[in-house]
Amino acid sequence: MEWETKGSRRRQQLAAQIPDEWKLPVPFQSDSLVNVKGIPAESGILGPLDIEITESSADEILANVRKSQWSCERVMLAFCKRATIAHQLVNCVTNFLIEEALETAREHDKYLADTGQVRGPLHGLPISVKDCLDVAGHETTSGLVSRIGFVAKEDALVIRCLRQAGAIPFVKTNLAQATLLVESTNNVFGLVTNPSNRQLTAGGSSGGEGALIALFGSPLGVCTDGGGSVRLPASWNGVYGFKPSATRIPSLGSRGVGYSDSNLGCTGVIANHIETLSLFMSSALSACPWNNDADCVPIPWNSRIGISRKLRLGLLFDDGITHLTPPVLRVLKESQEKLAAAGHDVIVLDWSDLHLRGARIIFTMYTQEGGVGVREALDISGEPPVPRLATGWSERPLTPIEIWKNHRARKQLRLDYLRRWKQLDLDAIITAPSPHPAPPHEQYITTALSAIYNLLDYPCCIVPAGEVNLEKDVADEAWYARAPYDKIPNFPYDFGDEELKSLYKGPEVFANSPLALQIVGLPWQEELCLLISQRIDDIIHHR
Q1: Catalytic residue among 229, 235, 283, 513
Q2: Is 205 a known active-site residue?
Q3: pLDDT tens digits, residue range 295-321?
Q4: Is 130 a catalytic residue?
């Protein structure tokens, strides 16, 4: 079929972008390899300096560039090499911008040599970009066959801001079809796999970013989040991620589908180091994007905010939609013990009533247009939806009155959630981003734990917290014997608590899967959310 031919041709073009000298030796190409995180350093393609550069934090890279210890070109070369290796292992890239990125890096080096100054706080830093965000002169597919050959005329505004700060885009990354899936797969570029266990999902819709960064193929990845698309890939790949409030970072130049403007999707970031999340926020906002995007709020980054006192932290174990699986429950309890031992107040929250209301509201919003927009996008090429695409297909679109009633319910929930937060005088909430670790492909259960914070428009930070333990994470009889929660019926691609029990046959199903915490703050308080997240990160990792 024509759509299959177009997809196959595009994959061939992508493969041809990888130089022969960067292609993996045959022993590393075997599909039998499960955990591939060590292969980039073992492949023989990277030299010692390549490894040192790519495994350094963004702050360390920038410091070495400013001191002329490393040139921008040398840094870029190292990441280009490592990104091609990562792609060969987990299929995480949609476009390599190697020659353009190296040329830009050389221009940055010349500027520093000529002036003694850097172009901005991100001078020479390679950045990866999710393939729904425009990069001038390059294709933006959003994982759709119909958008093959759609070349952006200008950068998405966030990319323009980061370029102004000195960053250099060098790859675009794989994603879910139409960005509407918790599995990063599409009919153009195929499936992204998890570097810790290629039998597991890398998450979605920003799975290419999560997998690439887990393999140290990029120091900073720019991506989007409409229901967990930053947070689930970050948590399931063992890296850091941040979802700000919806209009704090500009979304102009992000290519989605559909007509609904109800869901508060946003532009976010994934990185290997928590400090990089704040670096992204401060650098993007230093360009005053609100002058070019009417939806972007005019709130500059405030680096003077601090919090040194004892924290009051809410801990949410139960959202009334799914019970947490043993490994997810374990890391929450371990974190609770460490935070309490460090002197912080940790209050267990019984807020399942609010979360049940939130899930019904957000899942209704996801389906309110009846799938019209995504069907149109697929019909252009004739391609089919991939399994479990969040089409929102239903019998009919909602009427305007039904949509307005749901919006009113959202407004009331936001008020009730805030009141309960303030009654307890909380600084942040800690919960899981998902009830289970990274699952086998196509077997994720629900986005309820992440999507509610899009509905509420609360900033969230993902902090890695270990991995599945084959001895500690065996479920007891009581876990299987419990009565499952009733399934929320109005979201056609999510599963429920009964399916979760069937999925969790034991920890070996999720072998090597990373685990994470989701740290939640109040709207427009991104600075505080990240500061608290960094303190929690230090405590749980004994720094």
Answers
A1: 229
A2: yes
A3: 999 999 999 999 999 999 999 999 999
A4: yes
